[in-house]
Amino acid sequence: MLHLIWVLIIGAVIGAIGSLIVGRDMPGGWIGNIVGGLVGAWVGGSLLGNWGPNVAGMAIIPAIIGAMVVVFVVSLLIGMTGKKRDRA
């Protein structure tokens, strides 16, 4: 149970760092940051491997890079759907 809480906290921090670096907010507040951080850690680990320091089973550098990609893609998708609603 403690490991799960630790993973969620680290996921939130990674998502928040990714949002700050990209300069776009992840929708959903802290829950969005947790999801973005966890998905970003998975994407970063899949694309870049597990190098660098590990915390809660996540390689921090690839996880932050992956979170940046996830935040950017999600913000683009949300922006595109918002523009479609504005036109209708």
TrEMBL record:
One of its GO terms (cellular component) is plasma membrane. InterPro entries: Transgly_assoc. The chain crosses the membrane at residues 6-23, 30-49, 55-78. It is a multi-pass membrane protein. It is found in: Cell membrane. Keywords: Cell membrane, Membrane, Transmembrane, Transmembrane helix. Its main location: membrane. Belongs to the UPF0410 family. This is GlsB/YeaQ/YmgE family stress response membrane protein. The lineage of its organism: Bacteria, Bacillati, Bacillota, Bacilli, Lactobacillales.
